[in-house]
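Dear Dr. H.,

I hope your travels went smoothly. While you were away I took the liberty of generating a structure for the chain from your last submission, since the lab meeting agenda had it listed for discussion. I wanted you to have the full record in hand beforehand rather than looking at slides cold. The sequence, exactly as received, is reproduced here:
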Amino acid sequence: MHKYTEEELRELIEGNPVLAGIKACREIWWENPHCSDPAFARDAEGVDVDEAEARLLRFAPLIRKLFPECGTGIIESELIHVPKLQEALLPDTRIPGRMYIKMDADLPISGSVKARGGIYEVLKFAEKLALENGLRPEDDYSVLAEKKYTDIFRQYTVEVGSTGNLGLSIGMISSALGFGCTVHMSADAKQWKKDLLRSRGVNVMEYDSDYEEAVAQGRAASESNPNSYFIDDENSPHLFEGYAVAGRRVKEQLNGMGINADPAHRIYLIIPCGVGGAPGGITYGFRQEFGENVYVFFAEPTHAPCMTLGLASGLHNRISVKDLGIDGMTEADGLAVGRCSGLVSGQMGMLLNGCFTVADDKLFRRLAQLKDLEGLFIEPSSCAGLEGLQYVIRGGKTFPAPDENSIIIIWATGGNMMPEEEKTRCYERGVK
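The corresponding predicted structure, in token form, is as follows:
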């Protein structure tokens, strides 16, 4: 990657208040001037949402067998109306419409949004191996838990670099299927996540460096092993595909409530963002399902705003927050990423309406507020999406202000796997 000189950085930032604010680690708002035709979402290379949904349905009997808590075997979360939170979020301003929390914090198996993409990609790899060894697409996929197939899976190792939640999802499903699994974890990863993975037989490699280095180490280790499968959080269309299924799942949930998105009932979607895979895939899926009737916004920590920096500068993954002297340190461990995905930022350049950044202390305040008002617990990084409504409700050049018929959805990306003592610590910090 290019090493920017001080002069190059000065020229980049000069006259650009958004980039100046990012460099100073201030909370900023950026509206995307390039957001355009949502039909662009319909032909991302290598992404087939119909096939992804069909694959997840084929695997439902196996998921049900391996993880009885999944019920039907479909990994999905509730869409919860939060009227008390809606009333309290902006004390001096009324938020119109109806507000919902998408509770991916409660997704089964790994308790985060990463269960959508991470588990999906491992299943896709397992299916490829199984089809090469006698499985037919019309078979009952619960047979993949039998010795014939687990003996095949044991010959392979799945590897991934992660700040925590993606590693959890991939580690949990890989170990359940019989794969070997190594998760390369950055210094930002919480200890309890490492401990949980090790308790499931996953090999955890720890690094004193950041997410980018953990991914590089994982990629290098995988390349040296012919029986290794590397899941690339920065560039994987398979992860992206798994996340994109969320759009039609939410459409089904809204239809079940008697809500149909149309020009009179628009959706405003706010998602916390790290490297970009999960929020990017979800955005893509929503644009497929709702077209021009959805507006999407990403939330990032002030010390790790990699997607905002990549898009606002136009440099995408060719620039890192470290190039601006930002340390990348944040309590929002799932968002602690210095360089955005080039795959995702290239898509979001036309599909995303805007980004905003949030200071860490506010994450904990919102965590405690949501728990007190609605009885819902989500982890600090999930709370980033609760902070940007002051920008959204005023409207912008690429999106109208929400009205009484609007639907506001805030994506809660993780939290229910946290140990109780960690939940208590985060809640008490928020109260203080």
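Two observations you may find useful: DSSP finds 17 helices and eleven strands in the chain. The mean pLDDT is 94.

With kind regards,
E. W.
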